[in-house]
Amino acid sequence: MLGTAILLTSAKFAAFIITHSDAILTDAAESIVNVLAASLGLYSLMLAAKPKDIDHPYGHGKVEFISASVEGGMIIMAGLVIVIKSIYSLFVPHEIHSLDLGIYLIVSSGILNFLVGFIVERKGIKNNSLVLISGGKHLQSDAYSTAGLVVGLMLLYVTSWRWLDSAVAMLFGGIIIVTGYKILRKSISGIMDETDTELIDTIIQTIGKNRSPNLIDVHNMRAIKYGEMLHIDCHITVPYYFTVEQAHKEIEAIDQWINQHFENRVEFFIHTDPCEVNSCAICTIQHCPVRKQPFQKNIPWTLETILKNQKHQL
């Protein structure tokens, strides 16, 4: 990824030097960010791969969020510089040369960008790595913007309207800023441990498919990402007369279901709560020896019920 970023940056700056086009400079400036981001991403991946230690009991995976946030910030800065430069060039125009050769170089770099970005994103999804996912998406978005940029350059080549160069550069400078904001927003969410509702919903569905009658409810669930690892904690309600061994079997079952789904990348901490009289109305144990109320109905396991620090009840 780093080697490709350096190669593409060189090609795009060569195209800018040949043409003096602000639109092509837009692509080249973003590629500088790609090189810096790839360097930082490589370092963060090496650090995130280090095992847990006394000083870092949850591992080093959080560094990926920091790396992604720096990348997002750099992308935003590059976009702002491009917009400012384009506004200046709109009022102080300059000659553009050899635009056809510049277009060939940009098209070639755009195709390579997309292919590398697609491969990197797939690997990031497979390994649950925010650095690889954000890097891959960034490269692909760069390729999409390159495609639009080429359309603008071709119009400029056909019409010779110089203002089109600045207009296209401003447009794609704005797109770059939006891309950087999205990456920055997601990385800050990870640093602040913002609830990933999609992840929690997946966990709920996985537990629900394998749910035993003894698992009366699951509540107060939280999930935090540390690189490729997940830390999940929650409370479960089981019959109050269960022995420690019986309650532990329910915990082991949940741990097994979730780790099978997430390829053994989950660290689980589960607290057991005893059922109460109000639990009888939602308990599906058919021959409970201590039932105080008849069963009435199941309460669906949803984000609203699972996230609350409260036992389920009617």
Characterise the protein shown here.
With 314 residues, this protein is mostly helical. It folds into two domains: 2-191, Alpha-lytic protease prodomain-like; 197-307, Cation efflux protein, cytoplasmic domain (Alpha-Beta Plaits). Helices cover 63% and strands 9% of the residues. It has nine helices and three strands; from the N terminus they run H-H-H-H-H-H-H-E-E-H-E-H. It has helices at residues 2-19, 22-48, 63-91, 99-127, 130-159, 163-191, 197-209, 244-261, 303-307, and strands spanning 217-226, 229-238, 266-274. A three-stranded mixed beta sheet has the order 1-2-3. Helix 8 links the parallel strand 2 and strand 3 (266-274). Helix 2 (22-48) packs antiparallel against helix 3 (63-91). The longest helix is centred in the middle third of the chain and has 30 residues, at 130-159. It is elongated and about 90 Å long. The mean pLDDT is 82.
Our measurement of the CA-to-CA distance between the termini, rounded to an integer number of angstroms, reads 54 Å
The total domain count is: 2
The mean pLDDT is: 82
The CATH homologous superfamily name of the largest domain equals Cation efflux protein transmembrane domain
Low-confidence stretches: none
Number of helices: 9
Strand arrangement, major sheet: 1-2-3
Report the strand count. Answer: 3
* Coarse morphology: elongated
In what range is the share of β-strand residues?
5-15%
CATH class term of the largest domain: Mainly Alpha
CATH topology type of the largest domain: Alpha-lytic protease prodomain-like
Estimate the helix proportion, in percent: 55-70%
Radius of gyration: 27 Å
Could you say which structural class the secondary elements and strand pairing correspond to? mainly alpha
What is the N-to-C order of secondary-structure elements (H for helix, E for strand)? HHHHHHHEEHEH
Q: Please summarize the sheet with the most strands.
A: 3 strands, mixed
Q: How does CATH name the architecture of the largest domain?
A: Up-down Bundle
